[in-house]
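Re: the 193-residue chain
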Amino acid sequence: MNEFSLVCRTLGSLFNRQPSDPLLAPLFALIRQGKLAQHWPLEQDALHIRLAQAEEVALLDADFNALFVGDECSVSPCRSSYVENDTSDYRAFLAQIGMPIPDGVYDRFGQILLASSWIEDRAQEDEVQAQIELFDEYLMPWCGVFLGKVEAHAKSAFYRTLAIMSREAIQAMREELQEIEEQSANHEGEQGA
């Protein structure tokens, strides 16, 4: 798994699953031991220190539920709550890139980051263009509002910190995609000369 995929998968999983989910136990162990920062490709050490001081899992579960679960949640994690069009455009995009579309709600913030990781791990010729489209069309237009609401409504320092970390990481990853796209265009220009 490369660095881009690691960031997307980690953040996507933390926003997509309850903290008490057994699948997250190894990740939370790394976070609490301060070892995730050793593998993290971005300069976010201060944020990793704050994440390592996370509250108990039961408190994080309660915060996760209040923030993201049910009709009365304080912050909808779904893209469809922030953009006017329905989810059919995102569904079509997932089908176009060949990603299996899960049953039920599939446009949650965490799931979109996991989709970006899936694209990266697949490593097709058009992966950079697919990731750029995912970021530009289906993530960045609404994630700033979403993450701002998470910061404002979270009771735990963990989710406030995770929102800040995610905002910085998404911006850094989008800049990396831009650099790759420009390098590719320059390379193609040199070959065509």
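The domain at 3-192 is CATH 1.10.3480.10 (TorD-like).
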